[in-house]
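seq:
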Amino acid sequence: MEYIGSKMELMVEGESRSGEGQWSGRSGTNHIVNFQSNDVLMPGQLVHVIIQEACLHSLRGILLPAMNV
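struct:
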């Protein structure tokens, strides 16, 4: 898929349904992106991820450290 390997800015929506450090956010193009973070994130916070996988209804990414944006 065209998104794999790309960097995206997301607005954090909250912890994902699976929990356990999994978070969910939305891109500016309204894609749902799930990612792992042990940090405490706040809904509405902007973060950056690299997309690794495209699933049926969402994308999966890796959270980038704030200094690498």
